[in-house]
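Run log, item B.
One chain of 1496 residues. Sequence copied directly from the ordering sheet:
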Amino acid sequence: MWKKAKVTDQTAAGQAGIKKKSKVPGVMITQFKEELPEGMSTPDFTRKPIALTIQEGKLAVFKAKIVGTPTPDVTWSRVKGELTFLPDVCLQKYDDASQEHTLEFPKVAPEDSDTYKCFATNEHGRAVCTVVLNVIEVGFSKTKELQMTQGKDITDLRKGLKKRKPDGTREEKQMEPEEKVWEILMSADKKDYEQICIDYGITDFRGMLKKLNQMKREREEEIAEFVTHISTLKHIEVNDHDCATIELVMDLKDPASKLFLYKDGVMIPFSTDESDDTKHSLKQVGKKFVFKIQGLGSGDAGLYSVDVGGVNVFSTDFKVPEVDFAVKIHEVKAEEREDALFQCVLTAPMNEIIWYGKSAPLSKSEKHEISASEDKLIHKLIVRDCLPLDAGIYAAVAGVKSCNAWLVVEANKEPANKGKKAARKSTMAGACDDEELIRIAKEQQERYQKEMAEKLEKAKKAQEEREAAEAIAQAEAQAARKAAAEAKAAAKAAAKAAARSRKAAAGKDGAEQKKTKRKDVGAAGSTADGAGGASGPGGAGSGTDGAGGAVGVGDAGGAGSAGAGGGAGGAEAGAGGAAGAGGGEEDFEDEDEYDSFEDSDAEGEGGEGGEGGVGGAGGAGGAGGAGGEGGAEGGAGGEGGEGGEGGGKGKRRKRVREGPLVPETVIGDNNDDETTNQEGENSGKKGTRSKRRIVEVEEPVVDPGVHFHAGLSDCKAIMGEAAELECKVSREECQGSWYKDGEEIQSSEGITISKEGTFHRLKIHKVTEEFGGKYKFEADGRKTEAIILVEDPPRFDAEELKAFITPITVKKGQKAIFKLPYIGQDPIKVQWYLDGEELMDESNIKIEHTEGCSRLLLTKLQRKDSGEIKMKLKNEFGTVEALTQLLVLDKPTPPMGPLEIVEACSSSVEFKWRPPKDSGGCKIGNYILDRQQVGRNTWKKVGPIGSEAHYKDTDVDHGRRYCYRMRVETEMGTSELMETEDIQAGTKAYPAPPSAPKVVSAFKNCVNLSWTPPADTGGTNILGYNVEKRKKGSNLWGQVNPADEMIRAKVYGVKDVVEGMEYEFRVAAINDSGAGEYSSPSEFVFARDPKKPPGNIIDFKVTDSTYTTLCLSWTKPKEIEGVEDEAKGYFVEIRPAENTEWDRCNANATTMTSYTVKSMKSMAMYWVRVHATNDGGDGPYKELDNYVLAMPPPVRPRLTDAKIKSFMVVRAGNSARININFEASPWPEVIWLKDGIPVSKKVTISNAEATSQLLIPSSERADTGIYTIIVKNIVGQETFSIEIRVTDEPKPPGPVELDENVPGTVTISWDASPDEKRDDRLHYMVMKRDSNKRAWHTIADHIFNNKFTACNILPGREYQYRVYAKNDMGSSKPSESTKWLIHAKKHKFTLTMPESKTCNLQCAPKFLVPLKLHTAPQGYECYMSCAVKGDPTPHVTWLRDNISLNTNTNYFISNTCGVCSLLILRVGSHDMGEYKVVAESSLGRAECSTKLTVRE
C-alpha cells in the first residue's frame, strides 16, 4: 500500500517558514521572516484551550489568550468538515476585559465531537494549537419514535418538493412556506443561513443543518442523472437596463434536456429569442444559461427555481423592496482631472444601492467613492480624477427601479498642454444644493415613518384578534384536559384497589414466572380476552375485573379505566395492572425520577393477572408479573392476558442480547425488532411519558468478534516497482486469508504475505500486468477489499538520466546533440523544449524518434541559444521530464558604463566601471585600456590590467583632462571598445561670489560700500577682494582697487567718481586658487550729496474700479531746491474700514504715477493713501477724502449676446438649457419667470458672474411656455423672453373615413390626434395610393382641420389613403383608410352632334385665389399659393422686393392648371420682404402681393 507523507501546515505563499517552540507546551509557532523588526513579535499563546469531555446538551467553551505585535487575527477550524457559526450551534467571541478568545457551543451535540485548531496570525508569523472535544451521549435524549418521525419528516418533505407530473413538470400550485424555505436553503450560501432562519422563524439551527445536509445529498444524486458538472450559480441580479438575470454554467449530459422556470412553484413560460420582447427569456451560449426578466415590478418578487428535466438545480429568492427615486441622478459635466458627483434621494431607506458605470457594476475603491447618509436615503457616487475614458452613462439601481445620466468629461483643449497630463484639480463637478436634498430626504423619511406606523398598527390589531381566538381555544382545551384527569384518577383508584385484593395471588405467579424467559412472557400475553390499551387519546380499555397483569419492581403496570378509559382519552396505561407487593406500589410523581439511573432495591411479589386485562404502562401489554416483569418496557401495545401463576419475590432479570452487537447509546422505548419479541406496531407512548424509574443492572458481555481498525485502500502500482497492501485488525491472534480476483493466494516468488502484530501485509516485489486486480483479506467472517491498478508511465534509466543532465558546452557555430532512452507503455508523446519554448524541426533543429529513444540535434548554434534543454514524455499514465543545460561560448560584449569616478586629484585619477552584460560564457581574463589626453590625436596603451573592473592612473598632470577606452579579453577573443567621458586630473577650487555690495552712503566725491564674504571659500581662506564699477548705460566694468593691491576689509570707499553720475558696483573674492566670480551688481547710486525727502503728491484720485481692483492716479510732487527734492518712487497703502492698521500694496516703490490695487473684497469699504519717497526719505501721506467701495462704476443691466434665440423646440424627456450672458454693476438680481410666475422647483437656475443658466433636466409637455429672465440692479433692469415648446413625435390620428359627396371626389375625414389640443402647431398630411401606381405620394399637407376632399377620382380604380399627424418634431405613424373603389358604369354610347356655335373663351388674366400673409419660424419651410385664370394662358412671374425669383434655385416654383405655388425649404432672415405674383398675357396683366415675416 502506498503511504503518503504527513502534510504539515503550509506557510504563506512566498514566505520562509521557521519553526519555533512556544513556552506553552503543544503550541507550534511558524515565523515568516528571518529577522523581525524592532518591537515586533510573532503570535503566541499565553494560555491555550483545554480539552473537554462534556455531557450532551451542556455549554462547552474553549478559551485562549494570545499575544503578538501587531495584534494577531484569530480563527478556529475543525478536522472533520467546516465550522458553521450560528446561534445555538457555535459562536466565536472576544472579551476585551479579560482579553480572551472563546469558541462556544451553547448546546453541544454528539456530532460536535472532534479535534479543533486555533490559529493566531499576523504579518510576521503564525501560532497554532489543537484541542479535543468529547461529547457524552445521554440516554433517553431522543426516543426511537422521535428519530423515526424526523426521518419520516425529511422523506415527506422531499416527496412534497418532488410532486411532479409524468413529463417532469411540477404540479400547478403555490408553494407552502415550509417547502419554500427548504428550497431557498438548498441553494443559499452558508453565510446567509442565519438571516434566512430569522426571516422564516426557524429556531432549531442544529436540526435544520442535519435535515438540510441530508436533503442536499439526495438532490445531488438526482442532479447527477441530468447534469455532468455545475461550475457557476449566480443568484438573481438587477442591472441598469431595468431587467434581472439568473446565470448558470452547467454541462448537461443530454443537450436536449428541457429547462423549466418556476416562480413560487408555478411554471413560467419563457422565450429563447433575444429579439422577442417577452417578459421572461432564456439565452444560451455554450454551457452558459442566462434567464432574463424584463420590465421589473413589485409583482416579480418571489422564489425563482430552475429545473432540468424533473430535478430542481437552483433556486433564488428575489425580494423587491418598496422603494423609488424621489430625486434622480442628473447629467454631470466635468473638466479633465476633476472629481464628478452623482447623488440621488430614495423614497425609503436602503443600506446600499448598486451603481453602474458604462453597464459595469462599480464597487468602492480609490477611483469610485460610494457613500450613503445616516438615514440611508441620500446615496452618492464620486468619480475621482475624471479622465476622458471615464465618460459615459452612469446608473443607480435600487430594487427594481433605476435611473441614469451622462458623465461628460471635457478634455483639456489648450494647444500648449496637448499630449501632456493635466494637473489634478481639487474642484468637484455635479455638486448641487445639499440643503435641498436634505429637505427632500426629510420629507421622504417622515412619509416612510408614517406608513410604517400605520402598518404596525394594523399588525397589532391582527395580533390581538389572534390572541383572543387562541385564548378561547386554550380555555376549551383546558376544560377537556380537566375532565380527562378526573376520569384517569377514578381509573387509577380502581386499579389500586384491585391490586391489593390480588396481592397474594400475584406474588405466587411472579415466583413461577421468574424461571421463564422474557419471550415466554411476551407469548403468554397474547392469550388474553381483553384488548390492549392504546397510547393515544382515543384508546379505550375494558375488562371484567378492571385489572390486567401485575407489575414488578419499579415498572408501572397498565392501569385501565375499568371500561371508562375511552372517555378519558385512554390512555396513559392499559386497564387493570395491579401494583406488586413492596416496590410495586411506589408512585413516582416527580418527572425527574424518570431519567435517573439509581437501582431500585424494592422487591415486589408478582400479582395474578385478571382476565380481560389491558396492556401495561407505556403501551406494553404484559401478562401477569413474574417477579415484577408483567409490563414490558418497550413492547408495542400487546394484548393483555391471564396472569401467570405462582408467587415469590420479583427482581428484574439481567437482559441477554440476541442478534448483532450494536452500540447501545439510546435506551428509549426499545421499540424496535432487534430488542423486543412482543407483537405490535406502535409504542404505547403518549404526549407525556409515563412516570417510571429506569433501573440500571449488570449486563452480560458479549464478544463482538474480530473487526477492522483500518481496511485496505486502493493503490496505483508502477510497472517494475514494488507495491504493498496493508490492513489492521482488532486482535493479534487473528489469522486471515488473502484472495486475488476470488482465488486464494499464498507467499510465492513475487509475493510476500506477512503479519506483524495486528497488521497484515501483502507485498509485491516487482509489479507486472498480471498483478493488477481486486485483492481481498478475510478474517473471522469479516473482509476488506482493494484494487491494484498497474500503470506503466514513461520513465528514464537512472544512469542514462545522470549522463543526460550533465551540461553541454560548445562554441559559436558548432553543433550539440542530446540523446536519451526511455521506457513506458505506448503511445508516448515526446517533446523537446529550449527555455520553455517547444522545439520543432527546422533548418538548424533536427528531432529524431526511434523505439525507446529520442535524439535532438542543434546546428549553427549562437550565443542566444544557451539555456535549459527539457525533454518531456507523456502517456495515459503520467508525465516525466528530464532537464539539462546548453552553454554556447562566444566573444564577450563591451564593458558597461556609466563610469564611476572614485577620485580625481592633481596626482592621480581613479575610476570604476561595470562588467560586460555577457561575458560570452567564459571567465574574464583581462581588461585592455588605452588613454588619450584631451586635445591630442594619439592613444597611449596602458596595457592589460587584470580582471577587476577598476583602475587608478597615477601618470597624470594637474588640471589636464583624459579620455579612456577599454576592451574585455577572454579565451574566446576580445570585445568591442567602450570609450569613457573626459576626466580631469585635479580641479582648482575658486571661492563663490560674495553678496551684492550695499551702498552705505553716497557723496559727490565718494561712495561707501559694504558686503558679506561668500559661504563657499573653495576650501581655503579668503585673502581679499576686488571691486569693480560701471556707469549707468555702459557695458564696461573697471576695477577700482589697484591690480596688485587687493582689498583686505569687507568695506571700501570708492573715490574715483564724477559728481552727478550714476554708478553700480560688484565684488569678487580671492583665495589661493585665484579670484572667483563676481557678485551681483549693487543698486545704482548717484555720486552726489544726500537728498531731501520729497513733498506731497498732487491730484490723488480714483480712475476706475471693479469688484476686486481699484485704479489710482496722481501727479508727482513739486521740487523745491534745498527743501523738497524729486520723488524717486511711490508707495500705496490701503486700510479696510473695520481695521486700524494700514497695509502696503507694493513691496518696491513704483516709479509710475498710477497704480492698480488688486485682490480686494467685493463691495468692501477701504481707505487709501499714497506717499512719495527718494534717497532722502519718505514724503508725507496723501489720503482720499472719502472711503472707496470695491465695485465697478454703476452700469445698467444689458444682455451681451448678439443673437439669442427667442424660440426653442425640445423633445419631451430631453433636457432644456438656456444660457444668458449679461453685464451689470453692481451685481444684479436675476429672476426667471414662466408665463409670468416664478419657475417651479424642478427647474435648476445657475447664476455666475455675468451669466445665468436655466436647466430643465427632463422636460415634459407641461414645461411649454414663455420663460422670461429679469436682470435688475439699482440702476435699472433688462428683460428677455424665450418661448420653449416641449413636444414629441405626435400620436397618429384616429380612424380614417371616406365619403363621396360629389361624383369624382372623395372626402377624407379622421378623428383628431390626441396631441392636437396640446400642440397648436400640429397639422396633418394626406397621402394617396391607387391600384395603378402602387406608390404613395402626398396630395395635401399643412392641413389644420380634420377633413380633406380629393379630386380626380376615376371609376374602376382602387384608392387608399393615409393620414399623418405632424409637428415640429416630425410625423406620427399613419392611420390608413379602407380601400375605396367606384365601379365604372358602362353606358351605351350615343353621339349627338351639337349645333356648332362660335364660342370666344378668351379673357384677360385674373386672380381667383389671392396670396395670404405668412409668418414662419426661422429654419422652417414656407409654402405660398394662389390661383389665376386667363385665355390664352398667362405667363406667371414671382418677385421678391421687385426682383424676379423664377431663376433662383433657392425657391421651388410650380404652376399647375392655374395653381401657382412657391416653396421655401428653410426660411431665413434674408427671405423677409414683399412677394408679388405677376400674370401677363396678350390681353392684359394682373398682380397679387403679400408679405413674409420671419420669426426667430
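Observations after the first pass:
- The longest helix spans residues 434-501.
- The two ends are 98 Å apart (CA to CA).
Flagged for discussion on Thursday.
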